[in-house]
Write a structure and sequence with these properties.
The protein is mainly α. Helix 1 crosses helix 2, helix 2 packs across helix 5 and helix 3 crosses helix 4.
């Protein structure tokens, strides 16, 4: 629970939100809880189920965009393991690879924000984009 509240306070910056009435606070809090839950899910599954295919929780455009951005080469044909993609996403958030550590919620939070932007660009301009800009 403490980690969830830390993600809400630090990542979602829930305490900085200034609403005038409860009708506006509750939808914002509900959305932030989903974001915090997703961040913790990525962290936990990356540790608990490292050999799971990353497509169990990530869309192909998400992991492929991150792969290309970090490794500067085409994504592999075989879907990478979940722990590998979690580490790559966390590296976008400032995680430094060490043999005795796993990415934490803060680096995963920041990495997920960047991943969503990269995935949007991949869907819009990537190899399978429906609209070609000339």
């Amino acid at each position: 629970m403490e980690v969830l509240f830390r993600v809400l306070k630090s990542g979602c910056r829930i305490e900085r939100r200034r609403f005038e009435d409860l009708e506006r606070v509750l939808p914002c809090l509900a959305l932030c809880l989903v974001v915090a839950w997703r961040t913790l899910l990525v962290c936990r599954l990356g540790r608990a189920c490292p050999d799971l295919d990353c497509e169990a929780i990530f869309e192909p455009s998400e992991w492929k965009a991150v792969w290309v951005a970090v490794h500067r080469k085409k994504p592999p044909r075989k879907v990478p393991r979940l722990s590998e993609i979690v580490h790559v996403i966390a590296s976008l958030g400032g995680y430094l690879e060490r043999p005795d550590s796993e990415p934490g919620p803060q680096t995963v939070w920041i990495g997920l924000q960047r991943m969503y932007d990269l995935a949007w660009a991949w869907d819009t301009f990537g190899p399978q984009a429906k609209i070609r800009v000339t």
